[in-house]
């Protein structure tokens, strides 16, 4: 079977550029002019992107990607923008590499550390090598005395490499020297190849790109059109955009299954149409171990609910859509192993999206409504007779398995999402991204 085509969605990335950056980063300069470069959404084949165990490996994952220049002289690389991960990494071209790395090199995607005059391996004794934010702490290679990092995967495979630093060029700003994982082994050896060669970690951990660049606020609008999206790094007050804020949630004590560097919010309830689901508050809150937090994650495509909440959503959505769509009623089928609320739709036709009941996630101070075309997703290549198969874009986290509620980027389309680290909050506002982009362009 030929590899799936890349589906690219061009977005505009506007970067509020600070003063010349160092490893530790510096505060932004007041009145800094924004810079622009493209951010894309592209379809990534199975296994092409290494994921920690808390991430679902999508069979047809659509990821938000950004092109950056790394090293001296600069090398162009494509990285997934991921608010759910800390360590940025690049697939490095070395003498020993898997076929996926070789495929990336053939595409001009992988990073060549030996060709960069500013590349430096991180020694074992550095503060960066003692970071404890990562799921697997860095280790020391006794022979080379270099710091090593490892990413583990849900199926038991692993990818590892060296912790390193190099300069990252963001637009035409002075380059930032940033730590990242220079991964020498690839996760996947499938003939599909690799669509992207790295990941830009944007959570709140000490080794994330956000922390190293001292970025205290960033926001984006993911468009459902080809060229109307926008992402801002840095401070920008938008008077035309009335944001509703929900506070970031952090337990007072460390809990074993709570990710303290994720963007976690409090999920208070769910509505289908105008009907609140009968879900106890305790089901939506983290338990005594920290399992059950709600994370906003640009690196995950769809949204996942823990079992009890998902079952309530599935039952009510099927009830309200029964007059509109015939349910698939196939217990053995689940798209991407977790989306099993599916329907028959005649081939060549689309579901009656405008008549489907919206699903609203309710937070402390804000709401996120999923409606219209974002509710159902056509399963590629799946048919029942002359009918196509479409599935609800909420998945059962227990089937992955995940121990958290995860809000993916598919449900953040045409929604302005702001991450305000200074005030510890996330802002949400429904908006057409093309309108927001136009008005933002007039302001900058």
From TrEMBL:
Residues of the Peptidase A1 domain: 64-429
UniProt xrefs under Gene3D superfamilies: Acid Proteases (2.40.70.10)
Signal peptide: 1-25
InterPro entries: Aspartic_peptidase_A1, Aspartic_peptidase_AS, Pepsin-like_plant, PEPTIDASE_A1, Peptidase_aspartic_dom_sf, TAXi_C, TAXi_N
Keywords annotated in UniProt: Aspartyl protease, Glycoprotein, Hydrolase, Protease, Signal
Domain of life from the UniProt record: Eukaryota
Record-level GO BP terms: proteolysis
Entry keyword annotation includes Secreted: no
GO molecular function: aspartic-type endopeptidase activity
Active site as annotated: 82, 297
Pfam families on file: TAXi_C, TAXi_N
CDD domains in the cross-refs: pepsin_A_like_plant
Family the UniProt entry places it in: Belongs to the peptidase A1 family.
Protein name from the UniProt record: Peptidase A1 domain-containing protein
Lineage: Eukaryota, Viridiplantae, Streptophyta, Embryophyta, Tracheophyta
